[in-house]
Structure formats: C-alpha cells, structure tokens
Specification:
It is built from 21 helices and 22 strands. With 540 residues, it is α/β, with parallel strands linked by helices. The longest helix has 17 residues. Keywords: Hydrolase. It comes from Amycolatopsis silviterrae. It is an enzyme of class 3 (hydrolase).
C-alpha cells in the first residue's frame, strides 16, 4: 500500500481515448484514483497527500519495451564482458580485449562486420587465427551484435571439442575455411557449442546487475519490459528478486528452454508446457507465454526470404526437418502444441517467407481449435509481404517491431539485401493502417534500449545515419503508443497498463519536455525527472 501522490499543473497525456489530455493525476494505493483538471483532482486527494507541482511538465504512462532481454542486457555490462560496439578497426578490438575483466574466459559483445573497417572492405574476415594472436591460450568468445553469431579463438574451440570433423548442428553452422577447418565463427545454434561453456558469474553479481539495469531503464521513464527468452534458471532469479522486493519494473516473461539454440521439437515442447504452471505471478511479474524461432536474421542471410540473397540462397526456417516442407510442418505443429494448451506464442520471424509461414500456422491452429483473442505475435516482422498485412489484422496477430535496428543494423542490412529492400523493413505505418496492433522494442542488448530513439526513428526525426530514415512516418503519439498501449495489449493488460485512467496501475513518468511536441534535440535528450511504479517513486 502506498500513500496518495498528487501531480498537478502540467500536461497529463493519458492515452485514454475517453479521458484525453488532463492537467492532474492522483495516485492512491498503487492505482490511478483520479485524473482531470487541477481543481477536481486536488479536491479528491487526502490531506496528507504528497503533492508534486508539475509546473508545466508532461506526464506519460510508464514506457514499456515489448522485447528487451533484461538479464542478457545486464550480463553485457562492463563487469562481465568487453563492449566491442564502438570498435572501428581490428587494432581497437585488440585494445579493448586487452582490458577484459579478469576471468577464466574473455567474453566480448557487440562487434559487427560493417563497423570494423578491415571486415567492411574485405581485407580481413573474423578468424580464430587473428583472435589467437590477441588472446593466446585464454578461451575467448565474442558475441556478434545480432546475437546470432559468435567469433571464438582456438582455445575456445578446443574446450568445445570442435574440429574439422565436427558436424554442423541442426539449424546452425560451423563456418569453415577452404580446406574445411573451423574459422572460429559459429552461426545460429552452433553458438551453443562454445557459449554454453563460459563460466557464469556468481548469483549475487547476476542479480545485482539486473537491479542496476532496471534502475537505468527507470531513469528513461520505463516501467515495464517483456523479456523474451527466460529459461527456468532466469525465471527463478526474477521470482527471487520479486520476493526480496527488488523488482523496479514489471516483467512479462516469455519462457524458452534451450537458448542459445533456436530449435526445439514439438514433442519436447508439449512435455515442457505440460510440466509448467503458467498461472503463477502477479501484476509485477508474470509469464506471458513462450517464444519460438521461425528463422534467423537477414544480416547473416539466415532469414527465410521470397527473393534470393546475392548468393542465390533464400535462407530457411530453423525448425527441425530435412527440407522446407518438413520444417513448415514442424512449425505448424509447434504453434498448435502451444495454442491448444492456451499458451500464447511470440515467434521470432524476420524474413517475409517465414512470416507468411508463421501466419499460415497460426491461422491453421485457430481453425483447428478457435481461441478468440489469443493475441499471438510476430517478433520483429522485419520484412512482410503486402498480402500478409490484412491477414494479420483479421487474425488478431500482433507485431513487435524493432525501430532501433534501423540505426544499429542498417549498414549490415544494406550490405546483405541492398538499399531498396532495406527501405521496406519494419513497416509500422502500413501495419497500423491495416489495423494491426503494433508494439515497438529495442531487442537489447542487440541495440541500446532507448525508446526516444525508437520514437524519433518511426516519426522521421533526423537520425545518426541515413539508414534510420523511414519513408512513411508515424505521428509522435502513434509512435509513443507503440511503447505504451501496444505492449499492454499484447500482454492482455490494456485495462490496467499503457494508459492513465481511473483504476489503472499507477505507472508514470514526468518529463521536462513533452515527447509529443518536443523538438528533435529535446526528444532525444529527455529523461524522466520522476518515475513512478505502482505509486512508488523509483526515480527522482
């Protein structure tokens, strides 16, 4: 229970279609008790209410990242790994690795072929030989920014027992040189061969890093996230943080049992679902369903596309099966297994051909066993065929876009697909025009979680490079709804989250500049001056 908190004298953007924009909001016992004009709302407050004079500042519902790997992002912190996202040359990679945190292994994250000049111009390629010269006999694994590839040295390959004779795992590739020797690059499920061997930090450090990460997100006005890959151990970590009163955000967990492998079998999934209690949780921590993978990513030419990549390949699904037809059947079975058990599914899908297959599978499951308002969703929906847009709306399938990838992954996408195809990525405008519910996200640690940059990207605000430009922008309010009302709908929580109306959870943030009307520079620099979670001030 929390005391009354009265905020008045500002602009309260409720995003509630009935309430509209107000000037004051009253919080009591963790919920919105009143919202409207200053006089009316002030009269409803208890005599001992804490009063915040907004002085013209703007209140928004708490921001909600619909796809943020909270624990993975916390684990990418400097106390655990080397940040390679700013490295522009191999010399800079070497210098960064020289300052790696002490430990049995060296772990790095965030490198891209397009930002390291020797890779971008074709003079070099990621090899274990180069990495051996920098790291010697200390096992080393460097995670690509996409999280769909790692670059390992010889010591790490030796620990994993990877040799020229090691077969590629299902839905993965051990990249090899001209004579068949492993280069040190492992793609998709092959990452697990090495990544699973890295010693984990102590439980205390792990939990502390999650709390610190939540604090940083609170400072941006964020109060909710969906963590889309939550294995059993992480679910227990979140439950323990909740029991200790340390959660500073609402977490919706999507369960996933075998990461970093994207592949599971329908029979295995059925057993796991039958063994899981999906009813546990509350408004602060709950299970929202499961995550499945349909394909890979365009940057690695592993997304399943209708049109070929420059190599002539089309990519493929990552479900089990010896050919496309078998993999499509397995995809249908995976979705049906969850659907008939009334478990919501969010599916990683980036290629247009894969998206068509996922929509086919969801529609088939609905036809076999109708579940009104299931709210299954496509994660990313990077490339969508024109014909699928109306089907998404008709079937009630949501889409979780990744606007920030236009900034962070643009050069890599253009390199793999060309500028004209990249221009059609993440079609938020077309989705909304067709009546599809859309939520936006960061996919951190693939990008830096910053809703401000996402809003700027989808509204056509000038970005840091030409790759972030969109040709059909959203309005500011439309873009902000992708970080408020859209995620709430996907969580089946639109009655209590995403808006500020009487009875909703008191999650809100106060900004000096109104994100709906702020100039570009103001929008990109604004931070929350007061963040409230369930009536409790978490940032001030």
């Amino acid at each position: 229970m929390t005391g009354d908190l009265l905020l008045r004298g500002g602009v309260v953007r409720t995003f509630d279609p009935v309430v509209g924009t107000a000037s004051a909001v009253l919080v009591s016992d963790g919920r919105v008790a009143a919202v409207g004009d200053d006089q009316t709302v002030s009269a409803a407050a208890a005599p001992d209410a804490r009063v915040i004079e907004l002085a013209g500042r703007t209140v928004l519902p708490g921001l909600n990242d619909a796809h943020l790997h909270l624990a993975f992002y916390a684990a990418a912190g400097p106390e655990f790994s080397v940040d390679l996202s700013a490295a522009s040359t191999l010399d800079e990679v070497a210098r960064a690795l020289a300052d790696a945190p002490p430990g049995e292994w060296i772990v790095g994250r965030g490198w891209r072929e397009t930002t390291i000049v020797e890779f971008a111009d074709g003079r070099e390629a990621p090899t274990r030989a180069w990495l051996d010269g920098v790291t010697g006999s200390q096992p080393t694994v460097l995670h690509h920014a996409s999280s769909h590839e790692v670059w390992a040295n010889s010591a790490a390959l030796k620990c994993a027992g990877i040799t020229a004779a090691t077969p590629d795992p299902e839905a993965g590739e051990i990249v090899r040189d001209a004579v068949g020797e492993p280069t040190g690059v492992l793609v998709e499920s092959a990452q697990e061969l090495v990544a699973s061997l890295v010693p984990q930090p102590s439980r205390e450090l792990r939990l502390d890093s999650i709390v610190r990460t939540m604090e940083r997100l609170n400072a941006l006005g964020m109060t909710s996230v969906t963590d889309p890959i939550v294995p059993p151990g992480l679910w227990q970590d979140y439950r323990d943080l909740h029991a200790a009163g340390r959660l500073r955000m609402r977490i919706t967990a999507l369960l996933h049992w075998n990461w970093p492998s994207p592949t599971t079998s329908a029979s295995s999934l059925a057993q796991l679902l039958d063994e899981t209690d999906f009813s546990v949780g509350d408004d602060l921590l709950r299970i929202g369903g499961i995550k499945l993978f349909a394909d890979g990513v365009p940057t690695h030419c592993t997304a399943w596309m209708h049109s070929p990549y420059p190599s002539g390949d089309h990519g493929s699904l990552v479900t089990f099966g010896p050919d496309d037809d078998a993999r499509v059947r397995e995809l249908h079975e995976l979705i049906l297994v969850a659907h008939v058990r009334r478990v919501r599914v969010q599916v990683h899908v980036t290629g247009d051909r894969a998206a068509d297959a996922v929509v086919d599978a969801i529609e088939a499951a609905q036809a076999a066993d109708p579940w009104p308002d299931a709210r299954h969703a496509l994660i990313h929906g990077t490339f969508l065929s024109a014909a699928v847009l109306a089907r998404l709306a008709r079937s009630g399938i949501g889409v979780i876009t990744s606007s920030l990838m236009r900034t962070y992954s643009g050069p890599s996408m253009v390199r793999a697909l060309g500028e004209s195809r990249w221009a059609d990525a993440f079609p938020a405008r077309a989705l909304l025009d067709h009546g599809v519910v859309v939520a936006d996200s960061s996919d951190a640690p693939v990008t830096v979680p910053d809703w401000r940059r996402g809003v700027a990207t989808f509204t056509g605000t000038p970005g840091p490079n030409e790759f972030s430009t969109v040709t059909t922008p959203l309005t500011r309010e439309e873009a902000l709804r992708l970080w408020t009302t859209g995620p709430a709908w996907l969580e089946h929580a639109e009655d209590v989250k995403g808006t500020l109306g009487v009875g909703t959870l008191a999650d809100l943030a106060v900004f000096a500049h109104d994100p709906v009307t702020a100039e570009s520079a103001e929008l990109l620099s604004v931070r929350s001056e007061l963040t409230v979670l369930g009536g409790r001030v978490v940032t001030e």
